[in-house]
Design goal:
Elements (H helix, E strand, L loop, with lengths): L19 E12 L2 E13 L3 H16 L10 H8 L2
Antiparallel strand pairs: 1-2
């Protein structure tokens, strides 16, 4: 329950990010330094697929446990400076 009712304490629930479906769309952007494509992120609704939810939860847990590692390129700083508008 979100909000207050007489005699009840306020309770807020924040669902996991994988409880929703998001749509990612590339959009053209530009300024005086150049042009590029950015992202438009919109929420499309609730994830109602139980299998997809379980896969996302398992992935999240494995990442938190350290079983899944990210690979950051050594060129990361060069890429940042080349694309920072």
């Amino acid at each position: 329950m979100v909000g207050r009712k007489k005699g009840l304490k306020e309770c807020t629930y924040v669902p996991s990010i994988y409880s929703h479906i998001y749509r990612l769309t590339s959009i053209p952007q530009s300024n005086s330094k150049g042009s590029w494509f950015g992202w438009k992120v919109t929420r499309d609704g609730y994830n109602q697929d139980g299998n997809l939810f379980k896969m996302a939860a398992d992935f999240s847990n494995k990442f938190k446990e350290g079983a899944i590692k990210t690979n950051v390129s050594s060129d990361e700083e060069a890429q940042k400076s080349a694309t920072s508008f």
